[in-house]
Amino acid sequence: MRFDQLPRSDRIEDRRAEGASRLPVGRGGGLGIGTIIVLCLAGWAFGINPLYLISGAEVISNMRGGGQQSEPAPGQAKLETPSDQTGEFVAAILGSTEVQWKEIFARAGRTYVPPTLTMFSGATRSACGYAQSAMGPFYCPNDQKVYLDTSFFRDLAQRFRGCDMGSKGCQFSQAYVITHEIGHHVQNLLGILPQVQDAQRRLDQAAANQLQVRVELQADCLAGVWAHHAEEKWRILEPGDVEAGMQTASAIGDDRLQRQGQGYVVPDAFTHGSSQQRTRWLLTGLRSGQVESCDTFAAEQP
After folding, report:
1. Are 89 and 176 in contact (CB under 8 A)?
2. What pLDDT score was predicted for residue 162?
């Protein structure tokens, strides 16, 4: 993947040097994703399974009665463009999403308000509760921030075999991880996430999970829309990039992860979509470049 020509974002809050040292002991700082799902399946990111330590896993934004919700650290966060190699890559991908989504929103007569991306190491706090690296990258609608522990890039290649570590195609897979989360921000700005949350409160777990799958598949498609326009504008794609993206989408499908983790598949427990669904919707957005093609909610079978 070529990203040298991409604009760099300065909307990055770099907390990597903090590690987990600022998280309080005894107040949920060690909250695991399994505990989160038990406490509040009706939150923003419904039905995350402990097996699903994957891109797109969201932190619950409303901890009902659990007493675990935390506000970000007080004070004005310093936003900048990181100068290290990983930080520069993240800034390039984020910067390109700012340009592309601003243009797409403007054509629709709307204003795109870009999110902040918080890079952290190990654990950090967010307006959706305490976050750990095991949760994977996530979007918090409460503060409109994307949270990313970049060690997930290594896990993506080594643990989930979502790409070949060190290859340029793996960079496109990493970009997909980031732009999927930006897709959730787009959904939030369009009012989709609040509508889904309201609907999920009235549904049983299986039906709520099915609705969450549509949310996640739409974010996959929106990541593809970004790739389509980034390729048109900056010619970012190199041979093998699209294949690497498809490999990643397949590697983090619910069916594949369930089969690897427990030996069998439970479709009612899907929260992100099957391998086939994730690859299909990513490719849909990449081919069309149209937000309208990403209406996973209108599809009879997403």
Report:
1. no
2. 74
The answer to whether 253 and 229 have CB atoms below 8 angstroms apart is no
pLDDT of 55 above 50 = no
Tell me, yes or no, whether 126 lies in a domain.
Answer: yes
Q: Which of 185, 244, 279, 216 is nearest to 55 (CA)?
A: 216
**Three-state helix/strand/coil letters over 186-246:** HHHHCCHHHHHHHHHHCCCHHHHHHHHHHHHHHHHHHHHHHHHHHHHHHCCCCCCHHHHHH
Give residue 271's identity as a one-letter amino acid code. T
Report if residue 5 sits inside a domain: no
Judge whether 301 lies within some domain.
Answer: no
pLDDT value of residue 43: 34
Range(s) of the domain holding residue 143: 12-294
- Condensed to tens digits (0 to 9), the pLDDT of residues 16-45 reads 988 655 544 333 333 333 333 333 333 333
Q: Classify residue 4: in a domain, yes or no.
A: no
Asked if pLDDT for residue 300 goes beyond 50, the answer is yes
As for how many domains the chain has, the answer is 1
DSSP state of 182: H
Compute the mean pLDDT over every residue in the chain, rounded to the nearest whole number: 82
CA gap 191, 169 in Å, rounded: 33
